[in-house]
UniProtKB/TrEMBL annotation, chain A:
It is found in: Cell membrane. This is Cell division protein FtsX. Keywords: Cell cycle, Cell division, Cell membrane, Membrane, Transmembrane, Transmembrane helix. The keyword Ribonucleoprotein does not apply. It is a multi-pass membrane protein. GO terms for cellular component: plasma membrane.
UniProtKB/TrEMBL annotation, chain B:
It comes from Candidatus Curtissbacteria bacterium RIFCSPHIGHO2_02_FULL_40_16b. One of its GO terms (molecular function) is ATP binding. Keywords: ATP-binding, Cell cycle, Cell division, Cell membrane, Membrane, Nucleotide-binding. This is Cell division ATP-binding protein FtsE. GO terms for biological process: cell division.
Length: 290, 228
């Protein structure tokens, strides 16, 4: 407790370095939070798209319903599909009517005969869509195929790229924070060199001497991670209507407060690690050359 | 209690600071280690706190070789030894009270205990009224008394004083060494004081160990020292 008070006193004596360290930590973990949320959001969008029918095979008018159901069973047997739904001409017409109920012109011009029966298939994995569509193409009963495999695939690629870019970017920021912590704690050690030397001579253990610097490093971490999480939480709260509007039917909001609690805890843990390790390196350098 | 067994110290520069010193100091003794500058007095003092290690020989504290101590044991050794440094090593940004409290803080004592023990030590050395002053506000002799208060605060078995009267006038010098003598008599604390002040040495009539160019040339009870 006494040492924590001393640490706060030290920080108050030269607050600018402390502010620099805390801000560097905040920036790092703010960017980290953004990437985490971007990746998390991307996963939700992917999940949504994966649950949607990813390949729709339209059958020729001559194909009988029993044959289409047979094909559905064959596809099911491959194990590549997650869900197969048969939509008859009549059902397709119902869907069409529902979708264009406000446009009588479009409703009048189309009857059930115009709309082909089809199979809506969702794949187990994104990569399986291609195999499924290829399978449909080889069947003469299939007239046309709509397969948004490219959209899902591209989105998966974007998510992967965001993850990699985020990792690299956040790693660079962590390295910068790390160096700032080493610099700030190193400066404090230099300022307290006499005090440390006296403590050494009156019988202080290394741990006793090092503890306030570890507390300081950890404190920068806690402050930085807390500011970052608060900023991200506020931003998401403020922009949630716009984001939801952009995402359309993909329901992301409201994000559970538990998510932010876990995010904060994880960031505090990571930030304390960065702060304490930075302080440890600064101390190691000083105590080694004393 | 303290024993130097054929202790030699050679610095990397090639300079020999101590050359085959053998010396035994019993508990409760008051010993002056005297000699000109560069005779090896400070080297001997620093070996007792293991700031320095001998190049050969052994330094024993309560029959244990200090240099065989693991690094983690050094702080424990230093807590049993109070030191008044040549340059006093007071923290200029801390008050007299806070300076004296440092060894107790290191022992993680409570604020109430620190308050009580620091006040008692300051009273003993006669500067209780200066508790809230900073070292730069102290008069001659008061800095030394602050350093002595810090050295006795953790009730050590030994006090090492390295030239504590270096910058003092004769009156203040006598007063400061008189204080160490009082601590030696009242608390039975062993005192080892390095000095080149012959006036002080001859006034107090204690055991005198004379060093010349790293060699011990005299060890005398109630000895005298003629400088130069």
């Amino acid at each position: 407790m006494k040492q924590a008070k001393d640490t706060l006193k030290q920080i108050r004596r030269s607050p600018y370095q402390a502010i620099a360290a805390a801000l560097a930590m905040s920036l790092t973990f703010f960017v980290a939070s953004l990437f985490i949320i971007l990746i998390f959001g991307g996963q939700l969008v992917l999940l949504y798209l994966e649950q949607r029918p990813q390949a729709i095979a339209f059958f020729s008018d001559e194909t009988k319903e029993s044959r289409i159901l047979e094909i559905a069973k064959e596809i099911e047997a491959t194990g590549l599909s997650k869900e197969i739904k048969y939509v008859s001409k009549e059902e397709a017409y119902e869907i069409y009517r529902e979708r264009f109920k406000d446009d009588p012109l479009l409703l009048e011009s189309v009857t059930a005969d115009f709309l082909p029966a089809h199979l809506e298939v969702s794949a187990q994995k994104v990569d399986d869509i291609k195999i499924l569509t290829e399978g449909f193409r080889q069947r003469e009963e299939v007239e046309s195929i709509v397969a948004p495999e490219d959209v899902v695939g591209k989105l998966a690629n974007v998510t992967r790229t965001v993850r990699t870019a985020g990792l690299i970017f956040v790693s660079v920021l962590i390295a910068i924070s790390f160096l700032i912590i080493i610099m700030v704690v190193g400066m404090r050690i230099a300022l307290r060199r006499d005090e440390i030397s006296i403590m050494n001579l009156v019988g202080a253990t290394k741990w006793y001497i090092a503890r306030p610097f570890f507390i300081e490093g950890a404190l920068y971490g806690i402050i930085g991670a807390s500011i970052a999480t608060f900023l991200v939480y506020s931003l998401l709260l403020f922009y949630s209507p716009q984001i939801q509007n952009f995402l359309g039917p993909i329901q992301i909001f409201p994000i559970s407060p538990l998510f932010f609690l876990y995010l904060w805890l994880a960031q505090v843990f990571a930030a304390i690690t960065v702060g304490v390790l930075g302080a440890a390196i600064a101390l190691y350098r000083y105590l080694r050359v004393k | 209690m303290i024993e130097f067994q054929s202790v030699s110290k050679k610095y990397p520069s090639g300079q020999t600071a101590l050359d085959g010193i053998s010396l035994k100091i019993e508990s409760g003794e008051f010993v002056f280690i005297v000699g000109l500058s560069g005779a090896g007095k400070s080297t001997m003092i620093k070996m007792l706190t293991r700031e320095l290690s001998p190049s050969s020989g052994k330094v024993l504290f309560n029959n244990e070789d200090i240099n065989a101590f693991k690094k983690s044991r050094i702080p424990l050794l230093r807590r049993r030894i109070g030191t008044v440094f040549q340059d006093f090593k007071l923290l200029l940004t801390r008050t007299v009270f806070e300076n004296v409290a440092v060894p107790l803080e290191v022992l993680s004592k409570s604020e109430a205990e620190i308050e009580k023990e620091v006040s008692s030590a300051l009273e003993k050395v006669g500067i209780l009224d200066k508790a809230n002053s900073f070292p730069s506000q102290l008069a001659g002799g008061e800095v030394q008394r602050t350093a002595i208060a810090r050295a006795i605060i953790s009730k050590p078995e030994v006090i090492l004083a390295d030239e504590p009267t270096g910058d003092l006038d004769p009156k203040n010098s006598l007063s400061v060494v008189g204080l160490l003598e009082k601590i030696n008599k009242e608390d039975k604390t062993t005192i080892i004081m390095a000095t080149h002040n012959s006036q002080i040495v001859n006034h107090f009539k204690k055991r005198v160990v004379v060093l010349e160019k790293g060699k011990m040339v005299k060890d005398q009870k109630e000895g005298r020292y003629e400088a130069g």
